[in-house]
Amino acid sequence: MLCYGLFLADDPVVDPHRYGGGTMHTAPQLVHDLAALFVRPPGSITSKMMNLDGSRANGAKYEVQFFMEMGADLARFFGLYATALQAARHMGINARRLPDFLRLEQVTEYPLIGLDDLADSRFDETIEKEAAQLRAAKLQHNQELSAAETTRIVEHRARVGHRAFATEVLRRFDFTCGFCGMAPHSLRGNRLIVASHIKPWADSSNRERRDPRNGIAACPTHDAAFDRGLITVNGGLRVHRSRGLRASIEADTGIEHNFGESLRDALIVPSGVEPPRKTYLRWHHEHIYRDSLS
Ligand SMILES: [Zn+2]
């Protein structure tokens, strides 16, 4: 149950697919803390997460069922998590040995952020395709799951994965629009800054979907313009406006207001943060941008 909770952690974000073998020591301290608590190696924590989300086909049947049931009713999960934490404290296990990584001891409301990106029309189609693959993989391990069950698993996996991605991108950009610098820190949690993929979710591999360097944080207006290819960012992080957008700026004061001088010349990336990868940016100019860079 705690391993399931790791999918929902946002500080640190725990992506079980990112660590293994020689890189296990780079996993967040939280993974090492939980492993120590259960007197198991850290890899057992990330393996359990991958059994839960069905990405290891040889995981036990009840693990994916647990994953689905919790995903269908997160309020119930948070109740179980709070009970487990309370029981641990009662047994004398303090916050150093078992950190309250979902911060429920301090916070009562748990916002789910950054799911807008999954409103893509290709979401359902991609989910169905991946559900069929999971169903086939599970059958090879003599586990028969219905089409409805595998769809729910894959969809929930996409949502928790996306939540971790969006949280990490927003943190890297310090909740600031990379295009205009709007930083509504006093209104956090109001979705005035969103994180979206540079190379769209439906076109990305699983690794690319989770890569925070495939993300840009932006205000809703600039996010939409980027998603629709009205603006793009070149490999040197310069922001480009499409010919169509430039014509609208001349003709329309509303567009001029949002896309004229308010748009920065270069994408704002806080110092010390790795900028978006050039491969994703190139994909964006080649497939999404409605103009050419030259
Ligand atoms: Zn903006």
Helix and strand topology:
Blueprint: H1 2-6, H2 29-37, H3 42-52, H4 61-72, H5 74-90, H6 123-140, H7 147-172, E1 194-197, H8 206-210, E2 215-218, H9 220-227, E3 231-233, E4 239-241, H10 243-251, H11 253-259, H12 278-287
Antiparallel strand pairs: 1-2, 3-4
Helix pairs in contact: 2-3, 4-7, 6-7, 10-11
What would you say this structure looks like, in words?
This protein has twelve helices and four strands, in the order αααααααβαβαββααα. The longest helix is centred in the middle third of the chain and has 26 residues, at 147-172. Mean pLDDT is 88; it is low at 107-114. With 294 residues, the protein is mainly alpha-helical. The protein binds zinc ion. Zinc ion binds next to α9.
What is the structure about, briefly put?
With 294 residues, the protein is mainly α. Helix content is 47%, strand content 5%.
SS class: mainly alpha
Strand order of the largest sheet: 1-2
Strand content: under 5%
Helix content: 40-55%
Shape: globular
**What series of H and E elements makes up the topology?**
HHHHHHHEHEHEEHHH
Sketch the major β-sheet.
Answer: 2 strands, antiparallel
Q: Which ligands does the model contain, each kind named once?
A: zinc ion
Query: What's the Cα radius of gyration?
Result: 21 Å
Please tally the β strands and state the result.
4
Helix count, DSSP H or I runs of 4 or more residues: 12
Low-confidence stretches are: 107-114
> What is the residue-mean pLDDT, rounded to a whole number?
88
What is the end-to-end distance?
Answer: 53 Å
